[in-house]
Design brief:
alpha/beta; globular; 20% strand
């Protein structure tokens, strides 16, 4: 799995739906927990659509991504936000879990 492609529009972090974890009935408990954890703090999290996170939850999102990364059960790339170079500066609260495209 590649990094999660991300962008910020109007103070809303948007994650590309193609890069999000999938819920799989009978699948890995860790991956399913990761899916539900990410979904639980999203402002918008519709199936087959990009997920949106308001700036108020960015700190929680950052901590969640770090926690799952440090667990060792998920690959580093699965818990990293990848911003396009055109994005400009990555907000400080997200820098520890972000990279450039």
């Amino acid at each position: 799995m590649a990094d999660m492609r991300a962008r910020i529009e109007n103070q809303v972090l948007i994650l590309n739906h193609e890069d999000l974890p999938e819920f799989k009935k009978g699948g890995s408990v860790v991956r399913n927990s990761y899916f539900w954890a990410l979904r639980s703090i999203a402002g918008q999290a519709s199936r087959y659509r990009d997920w949106e996170y308001e700036s108020e939850v960015w700190l929680a999102l950052s901590r969640m991504l770090l926690s799952f990364a440090e667990s060792g059960y998920l690959g580093y790339r699965e818990t990293i936000l990848e911003f396009p170079l055109s994005q400009g500066e990555i907000p400080s609260v997200l820098r520890s879990v972000s990279t450039w495209e």
